[in-house]
Amino acid sequence: MTLAERFEAHRDHLRAVAYRMLGSATEAEDAVQEAWLRLGRSTPDDVANISNLAGWLTTVVARICLDMLRSRTSRREDPLSVVADRDDGMPADAELRLADQIGVAMLVVLEMLAPAERIAFVLHDMFDLPFEDIAPIVGRSPTAARQLASRARRRVHGASTVSDADRTRQHEVVGAFLAASRDGNFEALLAVLDPEVALHADPAAIAAAAMHPGAPGLAAELRGATAVAESFKGRAKAARQILVDGLAGAAWVQKGEARSVFRFTIAGGTITAIEVIMDPDRLAELDLVIDQNA
What pLDDT, on a 0 to 100 scale, did the predictor assign at position 276? Predict the structure, then answer.
């Protein structure tokens, strides 16, 4: 079998990988073609030493896609497009089939991910590539690659299951909670807390709160609206609203970085759980969006 024939045997797989990463059939085809050119520039000895051609080509395509995503981000382009007519050699029905395989809605969600997150998520969650193989592609350790995929997975899940109206309502509930906390308004705190609300804090958050008089009174676990309201009444004055894994949350921010994060679970318009996170390793796993102008 010639090298071209061996490559063609993997073309459909490579196109599927590239399309999920890029969201554009045109760019996916460009990435696959670039992988073919790179393979063609390899020496016979280099090719002979490739024990797993499919894996090698997948890695090459992933690196090409990562470069394209980063370039796209710097130019602030939005390439997501499923069109009826094309002039690049790929039939329209071929692109539509690619879109159908993953779903246009999922492609829209994937567009929210940072380039490295998207690569890690697609390769692991959609194509079952181990993190040991993903790590060198994104230039991270296997553990960091796992965290990238985990953050992406939470963002994809959150964006897929929460409507804009729900996000707006969550934002309002968290804002009301923080305002009541700062004002020391016990009744207003009770109004946004579920009667059975549970608060959990990690050891780092508990230790830090004990050293700062203005911080909430934290414990490994507090249960009930009264206990949680007492803990926050007149406190959390430095906390500000942020997005945590795509959902409304809060944080103590210092020099533009979240030092302590409040993750809320909201149901029926009230807060049913609060998790306070300060452990650096756990913070690194969260996808945090902080408005630097807030």
Answer: 92
